[in-house]
Give the backbone structure.
Amino acid sequence: MNYEMVISMLRIEFIKRDLPYLIPTMDRGPVIVLPTEQMKVLEKLPDDQLDVFSTLQEQIQARYTIRDQRVVLDPYHRYLIPSQLTRKLDTLTGPMLTELEDAFKSSWGTDSKWTEVTIWKACFHVVARAANSALCGSPLCSDEKYLASLEGQSVALFGGAMLINITPKLLRPVMGYLVKLWCAYYARKFTKICAPYVEARIRETIHSKFQVGNGNKSEKDALQLIIDEAISRDDDTQLSVQLISDRLLITNNVSLHGTTSTLHNLISSLVTSDPSLGYIEALRQECDKALSDAGGTWNSEAIRKLKLVDSAIRDSMRVAPFASIAMARAVVDPSGISIENGKSRVLVPQGTILALPMESIHCDETIYPDARQFDPFRFVKTKSEGSDSTSDGLRYETIKPTTTPDDHFFGFGTSKNPCPGRFLAVHEIKLIVAYLLTNYDIEYTEARPQLTDLLAMKIPDMKTVIRVRKRCI
Ligand code: HEM
Protein backbone atom coordinates (compact mmCIF):
# COMPACT_ATOMS: atom_id res chain seq x y z
CA MET A 1 0.00 0.00 0.00
CA ASN A 2 1.56 3.31 -1.00
CA TYR A 3 1.29 6.77 0.58
CA GLU A 4 -1.41 7.90 -1.87
CA MET A 5 -3.60 4.90 -1.01
CA VAL A 6 -3.26 5.55 2.74
CA ILE A 7 -4.34 9.18 2.25
CA SER A 8 -7.20 8.05 0.07
CA MET A 9 -8.37 5.58 2.76
CA LEU A 10 -8.24 8.25 5.44
CA ARG A 11 -10.30 10.54 3.24
CA ILE A 12 -12.84 7.78 2.69
CA GLU A 13 -13.17 7.42 6.50
CA PHE A 14 -14.08 11.12 6.81
CA ILE A 15 -16.50 10.91 3.92
CA LYS A 16 -18.18 7.77 5.34
CA ARG A 17 -18.80 9.62 8.57
CA ASP A 18 -20.20 12.50 6.56
CA LEU A 19 -17.57 14.84 7.95
CA PRO A 20 -15.89 17.66 6.07
CA TYR A 21 -12.12 18.00 6.45
CA LEU A 22 -9.67 20.77 5.76
CA ILE A 23 -6.46 20.47 3.75
CA PRO A 24 -3.79 23.12 3.20
CA THR A 25 -2.99 23.53 -0.51
CA MET A 26 -0.15 25.34 -2.22
CA ASP A 27 -2.32 26.98 -4.83
CA ARG A 28 -5.71 27.66 -3.20
CA GLY A 29 -4.87 28.04 0.50
CA PRO A 30 -7.02 25.98 2.89
CA VAL A 31 -9.60 23.90 1.00
CA ILE A 32 -12.58 22.29 2.76
CA VAL A 33 -13.32 18.87 1.31
CA LEU A 34 -16.98 17.95 1.64
CA PRO A 35 -18.99 14.74 1.59
CA THR A 36 -21.00 14.47 -1.66
CA GLU A 37 -24.40 14.87 0.06
CA GLN A 38 -23.35 18.18 1.56
CA MET A 39 -21.93 19.49 -1.70
CA LYS A 40 -25.26 18.56 -3.36
CA VAL A 41 -27.15 20.69 -0.86
CA LEU A 42 -24.69 23.59 -1.08
CA GLU A 43 -24.67 23.60 -4.89
CA LYS A 44 -28.30 24.72 -4.71
CA LEU A 45 -27.13 28.03 -3.25
CA PRO A 46 -27.35 31.01 -5.65
CA ASP A 47 -24.24 32.20 -7.52
CA ASP A 48 -23.88 35.20 -5.22
CA GLN A 49 -23.26 32.81 -2.31
CA LEU A 50 -21.32 29.93 -3.87
CA ASP A 51 -19.55 30.51 -7.17
CA VAL A 52 -18.61 28.03 -9.92
CA PHE A 53 -17.63 30.09 -12.95
CA SER A 54 -15.15 32.52 -11.38
CA THR A 55 -13.58 29.63 -9.47
CA LEU A 56 -12.96 27.83 -12.78
CA GLN A 57 -11.46 31.04 -14.22
CA GLU A 58 -9.22 31.35 -11.16
CA GLN A 59 -8.04 27.76 -11.68
CA ILE A 60 -6.83 28.56 -15.20
CA GLN A 61 -5.60 32.00 -14.06
CA ALA A 62 -7.76 33.57 -16.78
CA ARG A 63 -6.66 37.12 -15.95
CA TYR A 64 -3.18 36.21 -17.24
CA THR A 65 -3.80 33.34 -19.66
CA ILE A 66 -6.71 34.82 -21.65
CA ARG A 67 -5.63 37.73 -23.84
CA ASP A 68 -8.98 39.52 -24.25
CA GLN A 69 -10.84 39.77 -20.94
CA ARG A 70 -14.17 40.27 -22.77
CA VAL A 71 -14.02 36.49 -23.36
CA VAL A 72 -14.13 35.99 -19.57
CA LEU A 73 -16.53 38.82 -18.71
CA ASP A 74 -19.08 37.99 -21.43
CA PRO A 75 -18.60 34.24 -22.02
CA TYR A 76 -21.58 33.66 -24.32
CA HIS A 77 -19.72 30.90 -26.18
CA ARG A 78 -19.73 28.74 -22.99
CA TYR A 79 -23.18 27.20 -23.34
CA LEU A 80 -24.09 28.34 -26.85
CA ILE A 81 -21.46 26.21 -28.59
CA PRO A 82 -21.74 22.88 -26.72
CA SER A 83 -25.55 23.00 -26.66
CA GLN A 84 -25.87 23.76 -30.38
CA LEU A 85 -23.25 21.23 -31.48
CA THR A 86 -24.76 18.50 -29.30
CA ARG A 87 -28.00 18.83 -31.28
CA LYS A 88 -26.11 18.14 -34.49
CA LEU A 89 -24.10 15.06 -33.61
CA ASP A 90 -25.72 13.18 -36.52
CA THR A 91 -24.49 15.64 -39.15
CA LEU A 92 -21.14 16.23 -37.45
CA THR A 93 -20.15 12.56 -37.54
CA GLY A 94 -19.30 12.47 -41.29
CA PRO A 95 -16.91 15.47 -41.28
CA MET A 96 -15.36 14.26 -38.01
CA LEU A 97 -14.69 10.87 -39.55
CA THR A 98 -13.07 12.41 -42.65
CA GLU A 99 -10.71 14.44 -40.46
CA LEU A 100 -9.80 11.68 -38.08
CA GLU A 101 -9.15 9.16 -40.90
CA ASP A 102 -6.61 11.54 -42.36
CA ALA A 103 -5.17 12.38 -38.93
CA PHE A 104 -4.72 8.69 -38.12
CA LYS A 105 -2.85 8.15 -41.37
CA SER A 106 -0.43 10.97 -40.63
CA SER A 107 0.08 10.50 -36.87
CA TRP A 108 -0.52 6.76 -36.31
CA GLY A 109 0.96 5.61 -39.60
CA THR A 110 -0.06 3.16 -42.29
CA ASP A 111 2.63 0.53 -41.71
CA SER A 112 1.56 -3.08 -41.13
CA LYS A 113 4.80 -3.56 -39.11
CA TRP A 114 4.83 -2.57 -35.43
CA THR A 115 5.74 1.12 -35.03
CA GLU A 116 6.04 3.30 -31.95
CA VAL A 117 3.74 6.26 -31.32
CA THR A 118 3.70 8.70 -28.41
CA ILE A 119 0.13 8.40 -27.15
CA TRP A 120 -0.38 12.03 -26.08
CA LYS A 121 0.91 13.57 -29.30
CA ALA A 122 -0.90 11.11 -31.54
CA CYS A 123 -4.17 11.52 -29.59
CA PHE A 124 -3.94 15.33 -29.52
CA HIS A 125 -3.53 15.43 -33.29
CA VAL A 126 -6.55 13.22 -33.96
CA VAL A 127 -8.73 14.93 -31.32
CA ALA A 128 -7.81 18.44 -32.52
CA ARG A 129 -8.64 17.68 -36.15
CA ALA A 130 -11.88 15.85 -35.39
CA ALA A 131 -13.06 18.51 -32.90
CA ASN A 132 -12.18 21.36 -35.23
CA SER A 133 -14.25 19.87 -38.03
CA ALA A 134 -17.13 20.93 -35.75
CA LEU A 135 -15.52 24.09 -34.39
CA CYS A 136 -14.32 25.84 -37.55
CA GLY A 137 -14.57 23.36 -40.44
CA SER A 138 -12.32 22.78 -43.42
CA PRO A 139 -9.67 23.87 -44.49
CA LEU A 140 -8.64 25.40 -41.13
CA CYS A 141 -9.26 22.20 -39.14
CA SER A 142 -6.57 20.33 -41.07
CA ASP A 143 -4.09 23.19 -41.37
CA GLU A 144 -0.89 21.96 -39.69
CA LYS A 145 0.12 25.47 -38.59
CA TYR A 146 -3.31 26.00 -37.00
CA LEU A 147 -3.04 22.65 -35.17
CA ALA A 148 0.50 23.41 -33.99
CA SER A 149 -0.57 26.79 -32.61
CA LEU A 150 -3.41 25.07 -30.73
CA GLU A 151 -0.99 22.61 -29.17
CA GLY A 152 1.42 25.40 -28.20
CA GLN A 153 -1.40 27.48 -26.73
CA SER A 154 -2.75 24.53 -24.74
CA VAL A 155 0.67 23.95 -23.13
CA ALA A 156 1.05 27.69 -22.45
CA LEU A 157 -2.42 28.01 -20.89
CA PHE A 158 -2.48 24.90 -18.69
CA GLY A 159 1.27 24.87 -17.96
CA GLY A 160 1.27 28.62 -17.35
CA ALA A 161 -1.73 28.45 -14.99
CA MET A 162 -0.02 25.66 -13.06
CA LEU A 163 3.19 27.73 -12.78
CA ILE A 164 1.25 30.70 -11.43
CA ASN A 165 -0.63 28.44 -9.02
CA ILE A 166 2.56 27.05 -7.48
CA THR A 167 4.17 30.49 -7.16
CA PRO A 168 3.91 32.13 -3.71
CA LYS A 169 1.08 34.70 -3.69
CA LEU A 170 3.39 37.69 -3.40
CA LEU A 171 5.33 36.75 -6.55
CA ARG A 172 2.30 35.75 -8.62
CA PRO A 173 2.01 39.05 -10.51
CA VAL A 174 5.61 38.54 -11.76
CA MET A 175 5.00 34.96 -12.85
CA GLY A 176 1.59 36.05 -14.18
CA TYR A 177 3.25 38.69 -16.36
CA LEU A 178 5.63 36.12 -17.87
CA VAL A 179 2.82 33.63 -18.50
CA LYS A 180 0.74 36.41 -20.04
CA LEU A 181 3.53 37.02 -22.59
CA TRP A 182 3.78 33.29 -23.28
CA CYS A 183 0.01 32.87 -23.87
CA ALA A 184 -0.28 36.11 -25.86
CA TYR A 185 2.48 34.89 -28.19
CA TYR A 186 0.39 31.83 -29.13
CA ALA A 187 -2.87 33.77 -29.22
CA ARG A 188 -1.29 36.19 -31.76
CA LYS A 189 -0.02 33.27 -33.81
CA PHE A 190 -3.46 31.65 -33.71
CA THR A 191 -5.23 34.87 -34.77
CA LYS A 192 -2.78 35.41 -37.64
CA ILE A 193 -3.54 31.95 -39.03
CA CYS A 194 -7.32 32.27 -38.54
CA ALA A 195 -7.68 35.89 -39.67
CA PRO A 196 -8.26 35.36 -43.43
CA TYR A 197 -10.93 32.70 -42.73
CA VAL A 198 -12.62 34.66 -39.96
CA GLU A 199 -12.70 37.83 -42.09
CA ALA A 200 -14.14 35.93 -45.06
CA ARG A 201 -16.78 34.30 -42.83
CA ILE A 202 -17.82 37.65 -41.34
CA ARG A 203 -18.11 39.14 -44.83
CA GLU A 204 -20.16 36.18 -46.13
CA THR A 205 -22.45 36.26 -43.10
CA ILE A 206 -23.13 39.99 -43.36
CA HIS A 207 -23.62 39.71 -47.11
CA SER A 208 -26.01 36.76 -46.78
CA LYS A 209 -28.16 38.70 -44.31
CA PHE A 210 -29.05 41.11 -47.10
CA GLN A 211 -29.90 38.41 -49.61
CA VAL A 212 -33.45 37.34 -50.28
CA GLY A 213 -34.02 33.99 -48.57
CA ASN A 214 -31.02 34.53 -46.27
CA GLY A 215 -28.12 32.47 -47.58
CA ASN A 216 -26.76 31.97 -44.05
CA LYS A 217 -25.26 28.49 -43.51
CA SER A 218 -27.76 26.17 -41.88
CA GLU A 219 -25.08 23.76 -40.63
CA LYS A 220 -23.34 26.06 -38.23
CA ASP A 221 -19.96 25.28 -36.76
CA ALA A 222 -18.74 27.01 -33.59
CA LEU A 223 -17.10 29.83 -35.57
CA GLN A 224 -20.40 30.59 -37.28
CA LEU A 225 -22.28 30.52 -33.96
CA ILE A 226 -19.81 33.03 -32.52
CA ILE A 227 -20.09 35.34 -35.55
CA ASP A 228 -23.92 35.18 -35.55
CA GLU A 229 -24.04 36.04 -31.85
CA ALA A 230 -21.51 38.87 -32.33
CA ILE A 231 -23.62 40.34 -35.15
CA SER A 232 -26.78 40.12 -33.05
CA ARG A 233 -25.10 42.28 -30.37
CA ASP A 234 -25.31 45.39 -32.58
CA ASP A 235 -21.86 46.44 -31.46
CA ASP A 236 -19.10 46.52 -34.09
CA THR A 237 -16.35 45.91 -31.53
CA GLN A 238 -17.81 42.42 -31.00
CA LEU A 239 -16.93 41.63 -34.60
CA SER A 240 -13.21 42.19 -34.19
CA VAL A 241 -11.27 39.32 -35.76
CA GLN A 242 -9.11 39.12 -32.68
CA LEU A 243 -12.05 38.76 -30.28
CA ILE A 244 -13.75 36.16 -32.46
CA SER A 245 -10.58 34.11 -32.79
CA ASP A 246 -10.00 34.38 -29.02
CA ARG A 247 -13.47 32.90 -28.44
CA LEU A 248 -12.66 30.08 -30.86
CA LEU A 249 -9.39 29.55 -29.02
CA ILE A 250 -10.93 29.28 -25.54
CA THR A 251 -13.50 26.80 -26.90
CA ASN A 252 -10.59 24.72 -28.18
CA ASN A 253 -8.87 25.05 -24.81
CA VAL A 254 -11.82 23.72 -22.79
CA SER A 255 -12.48 20.99 -25.30
CA LEU A 256 -9.15 19.55 -26.48
CA HIS A 257 -7.28 19.03 -23.22
CA GLY A 258 -10.05 17.03 -21.49
CA THR A 259 -10.80 14.96 -24.58
CA THR A 260 -7.13 14.16 -25.23
CA SER A 261 -6.50 13.23 -21.55
CA THR A 262 -9.56 10.96 -21.49
CA LEU A 263 -8.53 9.20 -24.69
CA HIS A 264 -4.91 8.95 -23.51
CA ASN A 265 -5.93 7.41 -20.18
CA LEU A 266 -8.30 4.94 -21.83
CA ILE A 267 -5.62 3.72 -24.26
CA SER A 268 -3.13 3.44 -21.36
CA SER A 269 -5.67 1.48 -19.28
CA LEU A 270 -6.29 -0.89 -22.19
CA VAL A 271 -2.67 -1.59 -23.16
CA THR A 272 -1.62 -2.14 -19.54
CA SER A 273 -4.53 -4.48 -18.76
CA ASP A 274 -3.90 -8.22 -18.37
CA PRO A 275 -3.90 -9.63 -21.95
CA SER A 276 -5.63 -12.81 -20.76
CA LEU A 277 -8.72 -10.71 -19.91
CA GLY A 278 -9.03 -9.82 -23.60
CA TYR A 279 -10.36 -6.29 -23.08
CA ILE A 280 -8.98 -4.89 -26.34
CA GLU A 281 -10.37 -7.84 -28.31
CA ALA A 282 -13.83 -7.57 -26.68
CA LEU A 283 -14.07 -3.87 -27.51
CA ARG A 284 -12.85 -4.50 -31.05
CA GLN A 285 -15.47 -7.21 -31.52
CA GLU A 286 -18.21 -4.76 -30.55
CA CYS A 287 -16.82 -2.11 -32.93
CA ASP A 288 -16.44 -4.58 -35.82
CA LYS A 289 -20.07 -5.68 -35.42
CA ALA A 290 -21.44 -2.12 -35.18
CA LEU A 291 -19.43 -1.12 -38.26
CA SER A 292 -20.57 -4.08 -40.31
CA ASP A 293 -24.23 -3.50 -39.24
CA ALA A 294 -23.84 0.10 -40.44
CA GLY A 295 -22.69 -1.09 -43.87
CA GLY A 296 -19.01 -0.34 -43.38
CA THR A 297 -19.16 3.41 -42.60
CA TRP A 298 -19.47 4.92 -39.13
CA ASN A 299 -22.54 7.01 -38.43
CA SER A 300 -24.03 8.31 -35.20
CA GLU A 301 -26.47 5.39 -34.94
CA ALA A 302 -23.54 2.93 -35.06
CA ILE A 303 -21.67 4.99 -32.45
CA ARG A 304 -24.68 4.87 -30.12
CA LYS A 305 -24.55 1.06 -30.28
CA LEU A 306 -21.08 0.99 -28.68
CA LYS A 307 -22.22 0.15 -25.16
CA LEU A 308 -19.03 -1.61 -24.08
CA VAL A 309 -16.86 1.23 -25.42
CA ASP A 310 -18.99 3.69 -23.47
CA SER A 311 -18.58 1.65 -20.29
CA ALA A 312 -14.80 1.44 -20.88
CA ILE A 313 -14.60 5.25 -21.20
CA ARG A 314 -16.58 5.75 -17.98
CA ASP A 315 -14.49 3.26 -16.03
CA SER A 316 -11.24 4.71 -17.33
CA MET A 317 -12.41 8.21 -16.30
CA ARG A 318 -13.33 6.78 -12.90
CA VAL A 319 -10.06 4.97 -12.21
CA ALA A 320 -7.86 7.66 -13.77
CA PRO A 321 -9.60 10.93 -12.80
CA PHE A 322 -8.25 14.33 -13.90
CA ALA A 323 -7.78 15.42 -10.26
CA SER A 324 -7.76 13.96 -6.76
CA ILE A 325 -9.79 16.84 -5.35
CA ALA A 326 -12.06 18.66 -7.77
CA MET A 327 -15.24 20.67 -8.41
CA ALA A 328 -13.86 23.66 -6.52
CA ARG A 329 -16.47 26.24 -5.55
CA ALA A 330 -15.66 29.51 -3.78
CA VAL A 331 -17.73 31.02 -0.99
CA VAL A 332 -18.52 34.53 -2.27
CA ASP A 333 -21.17 35.54 0.24
CA PRO A 334 -19.58 38.32 2.37
CA SER A 335 -21.28 36.85 5.45
CA GLY A 336 -19.93 33.37 4.70
CA ILE A 337 -22.00 30.19 4.51
CA SER A 338 -22.80 27.57 7.09
CA ILE A 339 -21.78 23.93 6.59
CA GLU A 340 -22.58 20.81 8.59
CA ASN A 341 -19.85 19.31 10.75
CA GLY A 342 -21.31 16.17 12.28
CA LYS A 343 -24.08 17.29 14.60
CA SER A 344 -22.98 20.94 14.70
CA ARG A 345 -22.56 23.63 12.04
CA VAL A 346 -19.56 25.78 11.13
CA LEU A 347 -19.59 29.20 9.45
CA VAL A 348 -17.19 29.20 6.51
CA PRO A 349 -15.88 32.67 5.60
CA GLN A 350 -15.96 34.37 2.20
CA GLY A 351 -13.06 33.28 -0.04
CA THR A 352 -12.94 29.68 1.24
CA ILE A 353 -12.76 26.99 -1.41
CA LEU A 354 -15.02 23.94 -1.06
CA ALA A 355 -14.33 20.83 -3.12
CA LEU A 356 -15.10 17.13 -3.55
CA PRO A 357 -12.66 14.25 -2.93
CA MET A 358 -13.16 12.91 -6.45
CA GLU A 359 -10.43 10.26 -6.46
CA SER A 360 -11.36 8.85 -3.03
CA ILE A 361 -14.99 8.49 -4.08
CA HIS A 362 -14.05 7.00 -7.47
CA CYS A 363 -11.83 4.46 -5.68
CA ASP A 364 -14.11 3.58 -2.77
CA GLU A 365 -14.32 -0.24 -2.49
CA THR A 366 -17.80 -0.07 -0.97
CA ILE A 367 -19.09 1.65 -4.10
CA TYR A 368 -16.92 -0.02 -6.73
CA PRO A 369 -15.67 -3.55 -5.97
CA ASP A 370 -12.00 -3.91 -6.98
CA ALA A 371 -12.05 -0.16 -7.24
CA ARG A 372 -8.38 0.36 -8.25
CA GLN A 373 -8.79 -1.97 -11.24
CA PHE A 374 -9.89 -0.80 -14.65
CA ASP A 375 -12.87 -2.90 -15.77
CA PRO A 376 -14.46 -1.94 -19.10
CA PHE A 377 -17.44 -4.19 -18.28
CA ARG A 378 -18.28 -2.34 -15.05
CA PHE A 379 -21.11 -0.23 -16.44
CA VAL A 380 -22.77 -2.75 -18.78
CA LYS A 381 -24.68 -5.94 -18.25
CA THR A 382 -24.90 -8.78 -20.73
CA LYS A 383 -28.31 -9.24 -22.26
CA SER A 384 -29.77 -12.71 -21.79
CA GLU A 385 -29.67 -14.75 -25.02
CA GLY A 386 -32.94 -15.13 -26.90
CA SER A 387 -34.76 -12.54 -24.77
CA ASP A 388 -36.71 -9.70 -26.40
CA SER A 389 -34.04 -7.31 -25.24
CA THR A 390 -31.55 -8.74 -27.76
CA SER A 391 -33.82 -7.95 -30.74
CA ASP A 392 -31.65 -4.91 -31.52
CA GLY A 393 -28.66 -7.24 -31.99
CA LEU A 394 -26.75 -5.67 -29.11
CA ARG A 395 -24.88 -7.87 -26.67
CA TYR A 396 -24.69 -5.39 -23.80
CA GLU A 397 -26.93 -2.85 -22.22
CA THR A 398 -25.76 0.22 -20.40
CA ILE A 399 -26.12 0.45 -16.64
CA LYS A 400 -24.88 4.07 -16.50
CA PRO A 401 -23.84 6.11 -19.59
CA THR A 402 -20.58 8.05 -19.38
CA THR A 403 -22.44 11.32 -19.95
CA THR A 404 -24.53 10.86 -16.77
CA PRO A 405 -22.83 12.24 -13.65
CA ASP A 406 -23.99 10.85 -10.32
CA ASP A 407 -22.98 10.93 -6.66
CA HIS A 408 -20.10 8.52 -7.31
CA PHE A 409 -18.82 9.68 -10.69
CA PHE A 410 -17.54 13.20 -11.36
CA GLY A 411 -15.63 12.77 -14.63
CA PHE A 412 -17.91 15.41 -16.18
CA GLY A 413 -18.61 17.37 -13.02
CA THR A 414 -21.57 17.24 -10.67
CA SER A 415 -25.23 16.57 -11.58
CA LYS A 416 -26.01 20.22 -10.79
CA ASN A 417 -23.23 21.67 -12.97
CA PRO A 418 -22.25 19.03 -15.51
CA CYS A 419 -19.91 19.78 -18.41
CA PRO A 420 -22.04 21.12 -21.28
CA GLY A 421 -19.65 19.57 -23.85
CA ARG A 422 -19.87 16.00 -22.53
CA PHE A 423 -22.14 14.60 -25.27
CA LEU A 424 -19.90 15.99 -27.99
CA ALA A 425 -16.75 14.79 -26.20
CA VAL A 426 -17.99 11.23 -25.60
CA HIS A 427 -19.29 10.98 -29.17
CA GLU A 428 -15.91 12.05 -30.49
CA ILE A 429 -13.97 9.70 -28.19
CA LYS A 430 -16.18 6.74 -29.13
CA LEU A 431 -15.70 7.47 -32.83
CA ILE A 432 -11.92 7.70 -32.39
CA VAL A 433 -11.71 4.51 -30.29
CA ALA A 434 -13.91 2.67 -32.80
CA TYR A 435 -11.73 3.82 -35.69
CA LEU A 436 -8.54 2.96 -33.81
CA LEU A 437 -9.62 -0.56 -32.84
CA THR A 438 -11.04 -1.50 -36.24
CA ASN A 439 -7.99 -0.18 -38.12
CA TYR A 440 -5.02 -0.76 -35.80
CA ASP A 441 -3.57 -3.46 -33.56
CA ILE A 442 -2.28 -2.02 -30.30
CA GLU A 443 0.23 -4.00 -28.29
CA TYR A 444 -0.28 -4.91 -24.63
CA THR A 445 2.53 -3.69 -22.42
CA GLU A 446 3.60 -3.85 -18.79
CA ALA A 447 1.57 -1.85 -16.27
CA ARG A 448 3.24 1.39 -15.12
CA PRO A 449 2.15 4.46 -13.20
CA GLN A 450 -0.01 6.45 -15.57
CA LEU A 451 -0.65 9.68 -13.72
CA THR A 452 1.57 12.07 -11.79
CA ASP A 453 0.12 14.09 -8.91
CA LEU A 454 0.77 17.80 -9.29
CA LEU A 455 -1.13 20.01 -6.85
CA ALA A 456 -4.57 18.35 -6.93
CA MET A 457 -4.24 17.53 -10.63
CA LYS A 458 -3.41 14.10 -12.03
CA ILE A 459 -1.20 14.59 -15.06
CA PRO A 460 -0.87 11.93 -17.78
CA ASP A 461 2.65 10.98 -18.86
CA MET A 462 2.90 12.82 -22.16
CA LYS A 463 5.94 10.78 -23.22
CA THR A 464 4.36 7.30 -22.97
CA VAL A 465 5.00 5.33 -26.12
CA ILE A 466 2.98 2.34 -27.39
CA ARG A 467 3.41 0.04 -30.39
CA VAL A 468 0.75 -0.03 -33.08
CA ARG A 469 0.40 -1.48 -36.54
CA LYS A 470 -2.14 -1.05 -39.27
CA ARG A 471 -4.47 -4.04 -39.43
CA CYS A 472 -4.86 -5.89 -42.71
CA ILE A 473 -8.64 -5.71 -43.13
C1 HEM B 1 -13.60 14.35 -22.22
C2 HEM B 1 -13.63 15.67 -22.35
C3 HEM B 1 -14.10 16.61 -21.30
C4 HEM B 1 -14.01 16.49 -19.93
C5 HEM B 1 -13.40 15.36 -19.12
C6 HEM B 1 -14.64 17.67 -19.37
C7 HEM B 1 -14.81 17.88 -18.02
C8 HEM B 1 -15.45 18.97 -17.47
C9 HEM B 1 -15.74 19.15 -16.07
C10 HEM B 1 -15.37 18.17 -14.97
C11 HEM B 1 -16.37 20.32 -15.92
C12 HEM B 1 -16.97 20.89 -14.64
C13 HEM B 1 -15.97 21.61 -13.79
C14 HEM B 1 -16.60 22.02 -12.46
O1 HEM B 1 -17.82 22.00 -12.28
O2 HEM B 1 -15.81 22.39 -11.58
C15 HEM B 1 -16.45 20.93 -17.24
C16 HEM B 1 -16.99 22.19 -17.50
C17 HEM B 1 -17.07 22.72 -18.76
N1 HEM B 1 -16.82 22.09 -19.96
FE1 HEM B 1 -16.06 20.25 -20.18
N2 HEM B 1 -15.07 18.48 -20.39
C18 HEM B 1 -14.78 17.86 -21.58
C19 HEM B 1 -15.08 18.31 -22.85
C20 HEM B 1 -15.68 19.51 -23.13
C21 HEM B 1 -16.01 19.99 -24.46
C22 HEM B 1 -15.81 19.19 -25.75
C23 HEM B 1 -16.54 21.24 -24.31
C24 HEM B 1 -17.05 22.22 -25.33
C25 HEM B 1 -17.19 22.03 -26.62
C26 HEM B 1 -16.55 21.54 -22.89
C27 HEM B 1 -17.01 22.71 -22.33
C28 HEM B 1 -17.08 22.97 -20.98
C29 HEM B 1 -17.51 24.25 -20.41
C30 HEM B 1 -17.88 25.49 -21.21
C31 HEM B 1 -17.49 24.09 -19.03
C32 HEM B 1 -17.74 25.17 -17.99
C33 HEM B 1 -19.11 25.21 -17.50
C34 HEM B 1 -19.22 26.39 -16.56
O3 HEM B 1 -18.63 27.41 -16.84
O4 HEM B 1 -19.87 26.23 -15.53
N3 HEM B 1 -16.03 20.47 -22.21
N4 HEM B 1 -15.91 20.08 -18.17
Notes: The radius of gyration is 23 Å.
